[in-house]
């Protein structure tokens, strides 16, 4: 019940794998108020990420899914972004990649 009313959930650095994504994907539709979910630095591949993104279709308030630091295959990122968009989500809400790339992007924004 508590998870169902949360607006943000943090499941980072738990070493979760694609098999854990199955259970989480079944839980997501019950998170009626969830806006942001942090799944950073786990062990999700594109398969696990796809399960979670498809489950997001049933989460109307979910705006951000942070998957940074997971071993998602780069050649599957476009497919995942298409699925996210088909769920009616803004592209900027799906975050993937590695921490080093994120830090580099942040530094680039700081340059005047």
From TrEMBL:
Residue segments, region Disordered: 89-112
Top-level taxonomic group: Eukaryota
Protein name: Uncharacterized protein
